[in-house]
Specification:
Layout: H1 14-18, H2 32-39, E1 47-56, E2 60-64, E3 71-74, E4 92-99, E5 108-110, H3 111-129, E6 132-141, E7 144-148, E8 152-156, E9 175-184, E10 189-193, H4 195-212, E11 218-226, E12 230-234, E13 239-243, E14 264-273, E15 278-282, H5 294-297, E16 303-312, E17 315-321, E18 324-329, E19 351-360, E20 365-369, H6 378-384, E21 390-399, E22 402-408, E23 411-416, E24 438-447, E25 452-456, H7 468-472, E26 478-487, E27 490-495, E28 499-504, E29 525-534, E30 539-543, H8 544-557
Parallel strand pairs: 13-15, 18-20, 23-25, 28-30
Antiparallel strand pairs: 1-2, 1-4, 2-3, 4-5, 6-7, 6-9, 7-8, 9-10, 11-12, 11-14, 12-13, 14-15, 16-17, 16-19, 17-18, 19-20, 21-22, 21-24, 22-23, 24-25, 26-27, 26-29, 27-28, 29-30
Length: about 550
């Protein structure tokens, strides 16, 4: 041996120095390529291998996997979600060997493919065991959502929740546990289900809930859905119905006045059918019934304050205390105003002063009055407007049966159609009056209980039937007048002094007349004979036939 310690004294070559451990003893007849092929025959293309980080450049990282040459991988393949590089020189990392040698004799490595293969291996194990994965929803696609579980997976819209989710955008960005229901690694296809996990979870909760559920028990639940008739509450895998009538001792129009979907509430189990698994719940039953003591707290005549909680066409409901409400009927809101709708006087939330009118504890009804808080102005009207008083006012409204006259703010009187004229038969008030007219009338009667004042327009003038008619008209007298109205039975004729007489159809002609219009017209002036006069009944009968007969006899006699 020479000083080198090698047999035969052969000097050590640079090639020997680079050979993998132990191979420097091989026969020199082997080529370098054959030596490397034997040494790395266990490293196969398409597998994950371990390598050492030799250098980190600006764009790439050099990795040594122990092969004859190093490989490089783009820096971006090592960046984490925050864009940071979590490795340094000397670290050992797992990479994917795509090729031992490319066209330039350099090995081809991939960090991304190594990570994907590892993820797929883990996912496959989870799928085989029926376990779950956590995935972040990153976007929408046809029929469902795209989920990141290390690789891209598909979550069908029908599998997002227990109930169909109308707005899928609201779950994008959220992370949920999910179950793999279909996996095809060759096609890169993964189908997930969140619904199956939720169903399994709900089934377990339901079993626990059923085991402890009993009538009278107080428990907590979450508002799941609201309808017009009530609210469905999730008790833990089992839904119960809280009917609107069991929400409050008072009156509510819709469950949304008290609850919102998602609210956590404490309820009482009123009824439970274990066979059908139907649960009836109560909310108001947590508190004592205020109607049991309402007569101890309130009496008819009491003046109290309350809050308007509901308005209907016929009145307003006022809460006197939680659960105890009374009705102020629209007729009990004002002594004088004619209120068309309660909303013209009050709004929901108003605090009003009312008087208790009546309490029916068995029917759970309290009648309230707002106008009773103030003195009744009608009680003094009999003294202020005694019968026979001459008053002035403005025509506020015309109706078929008369005209309403405003005497003062909120106080109206009625001129009935029969009290508008002594002599004319008025068919509609508009023949004599119009809205807005200022008129002078006579008070005929004040009915305090009915809150009515009867007025007379004709009474402001003397009654012509008692003064003018007896003096100026007599039976057998000829008069001239104008036809003002025609009816089936005849015509009304206006005579001087605004006196009207009736020309009956039988007094038009000696022959039969079927229609008065065939003989006379409205507006036509006629000379007629008075054949009847009754001042007590205010009737004056006229005849065209009698006038013509008399005129004919005079002609013959002349």
């Amino acid at each position: 041996m020479d000083m080198t310690g090698r047999p035969g004294g052969s000097p050590e070559t640079e090639g020997d120095r680079n050979l993998p451990g132990g191979l420097e003893q091989q026969e020199s007849t082997l080529t370098m390529q054959e030596i490397y092929d034997q040494t790395f025959k266990d490293i196969l293309e398409g597998e994950i291998v371990k390598g050492k980080v030799l250098d980190i450049g600006t764009d790439s990282i050099m990795i040594d996997i122990g092969y004859k040459s190093e490989g490089t991988i783009p820096v971006r393949e090592f960046l984490n979600a925050q864009g940071q590089l979590p490795i340094q020189v000397g670290d050992v990392v797992e990479v994917y060997l795509e090729s031992k040698e490319d066209s330039e004799g350099i090995i081809v490595l991939s960090r991304e493919k190594a990570e994907k293969i590892k993820v797929w291996d883990e996912i496959s194990k989870v799928y085989e065991k029926g376990g779950m994965v956590h995935g972040t929803i990153v976007g929408k696609t046809k029929g469902g959502l795209i989920v990141d579980i290390g690789v891209r997976a598909f979550l069908p819209g029908s599998q997002v929740d227990l109930r169909p989710v109308r707005d899928l955008d609201r779950v994008i960005g959220k992370t949920f546990p999910m179950k793999i229901i279909k996996l095809n690694q060759r096609r890169g296809n993964i189908v997930l289900s969140r619904r199956e996990l939720l169903e399994d979870e709900r089934k377990g909760l339901k079993e626990k809930t059923l085991a402890t559920l009993e009538e009278g028990k107080v428990l907590k639940g979450k508002i799941k859905n609201l309808t017009e008739y009530g609210a469905f509450i999730d008790l833990g895998g089992l839904d119960g119905l809280l009917h609107i009538t069991d929400m409050s001792w008072g009156r509510i129009g819709h469950p949304s006045e008290l609850f919102t979907v998602g609210d956590e509430v404490e309820v009482v189990v009123l009824k439970f059918d274990r066979q059908t698994e139907r649960v009836s719940l109560g909310y108001k039953q947590r508190l004592s019934d205020p109607w049991k003591t309402v007569t101890e707290k309130f009496e008819p005549g009491d003046k109290v304050k309350g809050k308007v909680v509901s308005i209907t066409d016929y009145g307003a409901f006022v809460e006197l205390e939680p659960g105890a409400e009374g009705l102020v009927h629209i007729s009990e809101m004002s002594w004088t105003q004619r209120i068309k709708h309660p909303s013209k006087v009050v709004t929901v939330g108003d605090v009003v002063e009312v008087v208790v009118l009546d309490i029916d504890q068995s029917a759970r009804r309290i009648s309230l009055g707002m106008k009773q808080v103030e003195p009744n102005p009608w009680e003094a009207l009999e003294q202020r407007y005694p019968a026979g008083t001459r008053v002035e006012g403005t025509i506020r409204n015309l109706v078929d049966f008369g005209a309403f006259v405003e005497l003062e703010d909120g106080i109206d009187g009625l001129i009935h159609i029969s009290d508008m004229s002594w002599t004319k038969r008025v068919k509609h008030p508009s023949e004599i009056l119009k809205k807005g007219d200022h008129v002078e009338t006579i008070v005929l009667h004040v009915d305090r209980s009915a809150r009515r004042i009867s007025l007379g327009l004709k009474q402001t003038q003397p009654d012509p039937w008692k003064t003018i008619v007896p003096e100026r008209y007599r039976v057998g007298m000829d008069v001239t007048g104008r036809v003002v109205r025609i009816t089936d039975f005849g015509a009304f004729v206006e005579l001087p002094d605004d006196v009207e007489g009736l020309l009956h159809v039988s007094e038009l002609s000696e022959g039969r007349v079927n229609k008065p219009e065939d003989v006379i017209k409205v507006g036509e002036e006629l000379t007629l004979k008075i054949i009847k006069l009754d001042t007590d009944d205010r009737k004056l009968g006229l005849s065209l036939r009698a006038y013509k007969e008399a005129a004919g006899e005079q002609g013959e006699g002349g």
